[in-house]
Amino acid sequence: MPRIRDRRRAQAGTTLVELLVSLSIASFALAIIVGTLSSGLLQSTIAKRNTAVQAVLQYEVERIGASGFDGSAAPYSDCFATEDPTDPTAASGYQLNCPSGPYALRADATWEWLPSSSTVQVWTITVHALPSGDAVGRSVQTYKVTHS
To answer: What residue segments make up the domains of the chain, in order of their start?
Structure first.
């Protein structure tokens, strides 16, 4: 009987190898969970920004369409806040910095005459991220025709 007791005592507890294997598995699982959460957060942030950019573009296209035809219209910029539901604010001059505040996007609107036409304006709207000023996505164009 003494041998059986010694054998049980020798097998009690975990070995260093078992401990290292279980620790490695737990670390790997934790790394996968953290990676999934961080990539989900990044995707959510990108989707939020893209939605805001689409809303800004839609707003500017509707603004241009609602205004009267003006053959001497000046280019302009509007500043938009994505975290604060405030009305857009005009930048202090074309393509300049937005005033201090919660602004995250700036829309620049310019126009030119359609080649070989003096009755059709081609408006181009470009959205920039703030404070970097980098363009976000592609520019959008809309046409405005005089009704004379």
So the answer is: 2-145
